[in-house]
Amino acid sequence: MNEMSVITRKKVKELLLAAPGQEVLAKGWVRTKRGNKQIKFIALNDGSTVHNIQVVADMANFDESLIAKVTTGASLAVKGVLVESVGSGQAVEIQAKEIEVLGECDPMRYPLQKKDTSLEYLRTVAHMRPRTNTFGAILRIRHAMAFAIHKFFNDKGFVYLNTPLITESDAEGAGDMFQVTTLNLENVPKKDNGKVDFSKDFFGKKTSLTVSGQLEGELGATAVGEIYTFGPTFRAENSNTPRHLAEFWMIEPEMAFYDINDNMVLAEEFVKYLVQYALDNCMDDLTFLNNKYDDGLIERLRSVLGIEFQRLTYTDAVTILEEAVKKGTQFEFPVSWGTDFQSEHERYLVEKHFGKPVILTDFPMAIKAFYMKQNEGCAPGRETVRGMDVLFPKIGEIIGGSEREASLEKLERRITELGMSRKNLEWYIDTRRFGTVPHSGFGLGFERLLLFVTGMANIRDVIPFPRTPKNAEF
Ligand code: 4AD
Ligand code: MG
């Protein structure tokens, strides 16, 4: 077997494009083995592509006992000659000279050997599902999108800012935070008034996992101009839906001197860039997913590129939805001015009414976070803020953002109105005290983007190890 190390191993992706006639070394995992007493056909995959390379083993050259160990899931090193394939489906195959079984795989115990290959079943074996074509494709697309995100912002001169994961501020004010503590929960230290004594805790104060890096992002943007964050985000909302995770990744650009229109232009350019990047670089994997799960996928991806997203105020959207109800559309949740839209309303606007992505703006102040810029001249009871949500087909909200309130006075008033603790926010308010500027930003949910790009229906299937209520396995 020493000879095997003389030739450098080529990945399956390269081998499938290589010229026949050369000696090659391939390594990977067995997907299937078939054939008869004289000849065996082994489909080998190494995760570099959704396609397998076919290894042909002439049984005149191999021990029966060796080939018996070549079972689905086993890992192999194969040396041989790359030859033109006679069978259809692949251009080349490996005529094996030597086969080494690197790791055997007990067919009785291998979790992917089961007949059940449903996405639900695969979630229960999330530690093994990357070995399937479906999850190989998803992981490669996920990587390509992460790379494209960095490339997009780097090319524009944005600075990648790392914001803290442990924080004392609830940026979104929704209160859905996971507490971080080293206090002994069996014996929590209490103050005289009976409240928990957080001065005894690790940080000397109550801390949680972040729901957003935005507030710290604003500190960066008001110093170096344009930043983006890209990191994990945690929300303890008890939403068991196909679109919510308790731990998800978010990209949050924040730009000094941008108003809401600049913000919308950037958001639209950004998602179109990512979709185009996927079409340009992930076509094999997209074609596989299109054929296996969603035959409208590639068409849907293309459909968002050539058009301008529909821009629409919240108030106009309410009118459209109310008209729809009058004409007989049934929604589970009622709509009227002041209510937050549900995904069914968002999807109605995108899929039924406009037939393209929608950028909603100018939401009621009461349903949005404290930092959004307040609109001038609103009728009493109809106060709105310069929020901006990008809604996508099949998904609903994929991006949430806003122009930020740049006025110290208005920001302080809003913080007081909402009864928020100022003590934890003085550092944030400093951005408005010292050289405040108009600025804007948004957050793209990375897994929501991946739902759109892969066509998967459940967000648990676009992250390697999903965290959802009552589920933190692996
Ligand atoms: O709309 P959200 O809550 O906005 C913010 O967090 C702002 N601080 C962003 C900003 O302006 N910098 O969240 C932004 C996006 C949503 O549009 C959605 O795509 C995603 O994050 N998101 C989730 N994705 C998966 N699971 C969840 N539980 C999510 N909550 C929000
Ligand atoms: Mg939102």
Summarize the structure.
The protein has 2 domains: 2-103, OB fold (Dihydrolipoamide Acetyltransferase, E2P) (Beta Barrel); 129-176 and 211-461, 2-Layer Sandwich (BirA Bifunctional Protein, domain 2), CATH 3.30.930.
Topology diagram in text:
Blueprint: H1 12-15, E1 23-35, E2 39-45, E3 53-58, H2 64-68, E4 75-84, E5 92-103, H3 119-124, H4 133-155, E6 159-160, E7 166-167, E8 179-180, E9 207-209, H5 214-224, E10 226-234, E11 247-256, H6 260-281, H7 283-292, H8 297-303, E12 310-313, H9 314-326, H10 343-354, E13 358-364, E14 384-392, E15 396-403, H11 408-417, H12 426-433, E16 439-445, H13 446-454
Parallel strand pairs: 3-5, 6-10, 12-13
Antiparallel strand pairs: 1-2, 1-4, 2-3, 4-5, 7-9, 8-9, 10-11, 11-16, 13-14, 14-15, 15-16
Helix pairs in contact: 4-6, 4-7, 4-13
The protein binds 4-amino-1,4-dioxobutan-2-aminium adenosine-5'-monophosphate and magnesium ion (MG).
The site of 4-amino-1,4-dioxobutan-2-aminium adenosine-5'-monophosphate has 23 residues, from β11, β15, β16 and α13.
